Amino acid sequence: MAWNNHSFQILISYIIFCFVLIHSAPQGALITQLPGFNGTFPSKHYSGYVTVDESHGKKLFYYFVVSERNPSEDPVVLWLNGGPGCSSFDGFVYEHGPFNFEAGKTYGNLPQLHLNPYSWSKVSNIIYLDSPAGVGFSYSGNESDYITGDLMTASDSHTFLLKWFELYPEFLSNSFFIAGESYAGIYVPTLAYEVVKGMDAGVKPTLNLKGYMVGNGVTDEEFDGNALVPFAHGMGLISDDLFEEVMAECQGNYYNPTSNNCESKLAKVDEDINGLNIYDILEPCYHGTEMGEILTGNMMLPSSFRKLGQTERALPVRKRMFGRAWPLRAPVRDGIVPTWPQLLKSDTAPCIDDEVATSWLNNEAVRKAIHAEQESVAGSWESCTDRISYNHDAGSMIKYHLNLTSRGFRALIFSGDHDMCVPYTGSEAWTRSVGCEIVDEWRPWTSSGQVAGYIQGYANNLTFLTIKGSGHTVPEYKPREALDFYSRWLAEKTI
Ligand SMILES: *[C@@H]1O[C@H](CO)[C@@H](O)[C@H](O)[C@H]1NC(C)=O
Ligand SMILES: *[C@@H]1O[C@H](CO)[C@@H](O)[C@H](O)[C@H]1NC(C)=O
Ligand SMILES: *[C@@H]1O[C@H](CO)[C@@H](O)[C@H](O)[C@H]1NC(C)=O
Ligand SMILES: *[C@@H]1O[C@H](CO)[C@@H](O)[C@H](O)[C@H]1NC(C)=O
C-alpha cells in the first residue's frame, strides 16, 4: 500500500501524540511528600528550576500546583509577589496556597501543614515563580545578574514561561493569566506586554494569554503618591480641618510637594497616621517582644471595626512586627528601588513575622522535597532579600494597561480597602482616568450573602474591585471572599 497524504498525516499526529506523552510534566519535578504534611495531596504538585540564561547559570524556581478540579480545562495562572525582592512563597504559604501553615510548637520547629479550603488551586492550575534571579530560591551563577530592573525581570520571566510550557505542553491550550500584588503591579503588566509581543512575533510555543490581575499594585508615581491623603481622610485618620488645609496648600499634588507649607501640612498627616499598621489599618501594630500583649489586645477598636478586620482564615494573619516598612509618601519612582531589608538596614524582613515560612523553607528536608538547591548553592531563603539591586526602569504602568486592555486582554485591578501601603484610592483613580466607558456601574459585590466590597466595570474588560476590610495581601486577610471573586472573574461570570 502506497503512502498517501492521509496516512502520512496520521503518522505525524501519532508522533506528535507520543512526543506530547513523553514530554508531559517532567517526572523529576513531581513532589511526593512534604515535611509537616501527613495527608494526601489533593492534586499533583511539581517544582524545580528553569534556566533562563545558560551561560550565566541563571535559574528561576517555580512551584506548580495542579488544579484540584479539572486540570485540563481550568486556567493556568502565574503568581508573582512583589517587593521588589520578595519571594512568591509569600503567596504560597500565607495567601492562597494549597496549605495552611500552623506554626511549630516551639520557635524554630517545623510547621504543621493543613489543607487550605480557600486555595486558588481549587479552580486553577497555579505557578508560583520566584523572580527575578536572587529572590527566594532563584539564583544565578554570575552575581552581576543581581543588578537588575523591570525590563530585565520581564524578559527573564517571559523566557521562563516559554521554557516552562515546553516542559508542560499539556497546559499550553488552557487559558493563561498573569497575577500578582504590590510591586507585582509592575511585574504583571510588563510581563504581559512581553508575552503579547512574543505572541505577535510568532515566538514558539504560542502562549494563550487571556488577561491579568493585580492586587494593591504599584502603578504610577503620581496616582500612587496622591492616594494617601484622601485615603487617610476617608478612613477618619485625619481631621476635616487638616484635610482642607492640606488640599489648599498642596493643590492636590501630594506626591511631589513644591512648597514648605504643603510639606508641613503633609508632616502633620504623617504624625497622625504614624503609629498605624501600614498593611491594614485595622490590625494592631506589633513591636517584637510586645507581640504577646498585642495579640490579645485590639481593644481600642470598637467591635464593628474589629468585625470588619475579622477573617475566616483558620490561622491568624501574620504578625506585623513594626508599624510599617515603606516610608509614608514614598511612591515608587524611576530609578533604584530599595528592597525592604535595604530600606530598614536590617537582615530580618521588616514588619512581617515570617518565622513559619522561614523555618519551613530553610529546612534541609523541605528543600530536598521541593527540589530547591541547598543553602550553599541558592543561599538561605528569605521572604524579602537584599541580594538584588533593583532599578525601576519601566516608568508608569498606565501605558501598559492601555495597550493590553485595548487589545482585548482582560484586566482585574483589585484592592484591599484598608491597606495604607498601596491604598485603593490610587487604584480607583488611575482605573477611572484611563477613560473607558463604565459598563458596570459602582455596586456592591457579595460573598456568602454579605457585601464583600465594591466593583466598577469599564469597557475593554477592565474591572476595578475592592475587598471590604482587607489589608495589603487580600487572600491572606479575606481568603473566602478572595477565592469567590477570583473564580468568578476567571470564569467570566458576573462578580
Ligand atoms: C497527621 O498528624 C496529625 C497530628 O500528628 C494527626 O492528628 C493526624 O491523624 C495525622 N493524619 C494522618 C492522615 O496520618
Ligand atoms: C558575569 O557576567 C558578566 C556580564 O556578562 C561578565 O562580564 C563576567 O565576566 C561574568 N563573570 C563571571 C565570573 O563569569
Ligand atoms: C501596543 O504595543 C505594541 C507593541 O509595542 C504596538 O505594536 C501596538 O501598536 C500597541 N497598541 C496600542 C493600541 O497601543
Ligand atoms: C472581553 O473579554 C471577552 C472574553 O475574553 C472577549 O470575548 C471580548 O472580546 C473582550 N471584550 C473587549 C472589548 O475586548
TrEMBL record:
Organism: Nyssa sinensis
Similarity comment: family membership: Belongs to the peptidase S10 family.
Lineage, opening ranks: Eukaryota, Viridiplantae, Streptophyta, Embryophyta, Tracheophyta
Residue spans crossing the bilayer: none
Nucleus keyword on record: no
Top-level class of the enzyme under EC nomenclature: hydrolase
Any GO molecular function: acyltransferase activity, transferring groups other than amino-acyl groups
Listed GO CC annotations: extracellular region
EC numbers: 3.4.16.-
Name of the protein this chain belongs to: Carboxypeptidase
UniProt keyword annotations, A-Z: Carboxypeptidase, Disulfide bond, Glycoprotein, Hydrolase, Protease, Secreted, Signal, Zymogen
Pfam families to which the protein is assigned, alphabetical: Peptidase_S10
GO BP terms in the entry: proteolysis; secondary metabolic process
Coiled-coil region(s): none
Localization, UniProt: Secreted
Domain of life: Eukaryota
Chief place of localization: secreted
First and last residue of the signal peptide: 1-24
Keyword Membrane belongs to the record: no
